[in-house]
Design brief:
disordered N terminus, Rossmann fold, about 300 residues
């Protein structure tokens, strides 16, 4: 078992995160199926051409993360915040893969992924703070989960502590030559104090976004940031496409979840698209590689030589 000694589990934080995730994602798979693309990717797509469809742009996004971890050479992959399993589906098709694990806090998502019977895939309804893998992974992918790790009442130092706990665990779960591919929404030219209370109260309760400075501070010394790309306008477009799909299926959605819930989601998608377009919010895709034990041993030797 890969042991992690970087901090005690915060049970209250874990329970709050689980409740928040279920509040949003367990409204029902059939509701999301009405307005997401066929892969059920509920995160920012990646447009490579102006005429890309939502489905094609989501495939580009999935390929970006799979290519980042070198999936064609990987034997094992961990997906933290696996959603409805789009990454796990593609990982399971790779001939070299012998082990793929997805973590989610949504019972509905876990049930859906398990029903697909992807070969070599295990799905766990478990917080990353509780997870203890039996062996290391060649690659870790986390898309859209990072923004749920901190809470609105966390001071910046506490946010960085939580993020550093995540990065510490990911480093220890990866093989020395492994890669972490991370995608997260972040604050851009807006502070946490300026965030819309409707989003925090009605859509993503107890969730708090990071800043790029907080992410890099938390990863410092643990991971080398190899690439950072900004998908802000991609996310504005993605939210607009989701809103368009929901409007087109409003009657069916209302029959499933009620008019109040549909109106709430339409408002959330409209506000999100506006926030990304105006630069209040942004979307980062980061590729990170652990410095590894060799880095720290070399650093220690150099420091001893100077002593």
């Amino acid at each position: 078992m890969v042991a992690v000694e970087s901090g005690a589990v915060d049970v209250e934080r874990t329970d709050a995160a689980a409740a928040a995730i279920r509040h949003h994602y367990d409204i029902g798979n059939e509701f999301y199926r009405l307005w997401l693309d066929p892969t059920l990717s509920y995160s920012c797509a990646l447009r490579e051409n102006p005429d890309d469809t939502l489905e094609l742009a989501q495939e580009h996004k999935l390929n970006h993360h799979l290519n980042a971890i070198g999936v064609e050479r990987a034997g094992s992959v961990l997906d933290i915040g696996c959603g409805w399993g789009a990454i796990l589906d593609r990982v399971s098709r790779q001939p070299a893969i012998t082990r793929a694990v997805g973590l989610t806090l949504s019972d509905e998502q876990a049930e859906y992924v398990r029903a697909q019977n992807y070969p070599g895939v295990e799905v766990r309804v478990e917080d990353w703070l509780h997870y203890q893998p039996a062996d290391r992974f060649d690659g870790i992918i986390s898309i859209g989960a990072f923004e749920h790790f901190a809470r609105p009442d966390d001071a910046p130092a506490e946010k960085i502590r939580v993020y550093r706990e995540f990065f510490t665990r990911c480093r220890d779960w990866l093989r020395p030559d492994g890669t972490l591919s991370l995608q997260t929404i972040a604050y851009a030219n807006m502070t946490a104090a300026q965030a819309n209370t409707f989003m925090q109260r009605e859509i993503f309760p107890d969730a708090e976004l990071p800043t790029l400075a907080e992410i890099t501070a938390a990863a410092d010394g643990l991971f080398e940031v190899c690439a950072v790309t900004n998908g802000r306008l991609d996310y504005a477009w993605t939210c607009a496409e989701w809103a368009r799909g929901l409007r087109a299926h409003r009657a069916e959605a209302t029959a499933l979840v009620g008019a109040e819930a549909v109106a709430r989601y339409e408002r959330y998608l409209k506000l999100s698209a506006m926030g990304f377009r105006m630069g209040k919010l942004t979307l980062f895709r980061l590729v990170l590689r652990p410095y590894g034990s060799g880095f720290f041993e070399a650093k220690s030797s150099r420091e001893e030589g100077r002593a």
